[in-house]
Design brief:
This protein is an all-alpha fold and 273 residues long. Helix content is 79%, strand content 0%. The chain contains nine helices and no strands. Helix 1 packs antiparallel against helix 2, helix 1 packs antiparallel against helix 6 and helix 2 runs parallel beside helix 4. The longest helix has 43 residues. The radius of gyration is 21 Å and the shape is elongated. It starts with a helix and ends with a helix.
């Protein structure tokens, strides 16, 4: 549930930031009448995201019939790839996002087609919604026990918290540090993706694709990953009570490689191109 909360909080907050930028800019240029297009665009983006979630749920059944473990492993690796790409993209383009949105609004204004701001809102919300669906699909493939309603509650809580944070930023004088918020959630998503990768490696070992190794340690006496707290930490940061060497190696290499890529100084990253 913790991982579901973090994912929905981060993605819904990004969507609320985009909507807030568009609302603020329209208000500043005296085009508040067009805010209704933003509202409708955002709502349609949300509806399209829910429809995509239902479609993914619909096709997951026949896919799982092909082999639950194999499909589960494929979905997990897909989620790791998407999380990695998304974190890197936000690292490179987050600062330019506001300027890009302003330029698109000005282009719509110059062409006297400000209703196009509704399309900006739709694409922004649907993009975040689609990513959320795919990320959560990966988490569901990892889950070994049924916790559907718990994940739904965590998802709703994440969206509600994101809406509250968005309100705080745009109505209460930007008291929230966006840099610290994105830094903290990026660390959590990095650990979440590492945990997913470790789980995927474990599934490949169970399928015989990779050699099965002995557990490096056993802390199940202290905290079983089937207990409530252990399951929470397993989903959030990839905790394992009895991990194999391959699982630990995959986790460590991913954290080291992606951590270096995501947290190196941005100037050096640009200069290195």
């Amino acid at each position: 549930m913790g991982a579901t909360f973090i994912i929905t909080l981060r993605e819904a907050f990004e969507a609320s930031l985009l909507l807030g930028i568009v609302y603020t800019y329209l208000n500043r240029i005296g085009a508040r009448d067009y805010c209704r297009y933003v509202t409708w665009g955002g709502l349609l983006g949300l509806v399209a995201s829910v429809a995509m979630g239902l479609a993914v749920n619909l096709i997951s059944g026949p896919l799982i019939d092909l082999g639950p473990d194999l499909i589960g492993a494929a979905v997990i690796f897909l989620a790791v790839g998407l999380l990695s790409w998304h974190s890197w993209w936000m690292r490179q383009h987050a600062r330019a996002m506001t300027g890009e949105v302003y330029r698109r609004i000005e282009a719509a204004r110059a062409s006297r087609r400000l209703w196009l701001v509704g399309l900006i809102a739709f694409t922004g919300v649907f993009r975040e919604g689609a990513e959320t669906v795919l990320f959560l699909w990966g988490l569901m493939a990892e889950a070994t026990t049924g916790s559907g309603w718990g994940n739904v509650a965590a998802g709703v809580a994440g969206v509600a918290a994101a809406a509250a944070l968005g309100w705080l930023v745009f109505r209460a004088g930007q008291k929230l540090s966006l840099r610290h918020f994105f830094g903290a959630t990026t660390v959590l998503i990095l650990l979440l993706a590492a945990g997913l990768l470790s789980t995927g490696v474990g599934k490949l070992q169970a399928l015989g694709v990779l050699p099965m190794g002995a557990a490096l340690w056993d802390t199940s006496w202290l905290l079983s990953d089937r207990s409530g707290i252990g399951s929470f930490l397993s989903g959030l940061v990839g905790y394992r009570a009895r991990p194999s060497g391959a699982e630990v190696a995959a986790y460590a290499v991913y954290v080291l490689a992606m951590g270096t890529l995501l947290f190196r100084p941005l100037r050096r990253a640009v200069a290195g191109r």
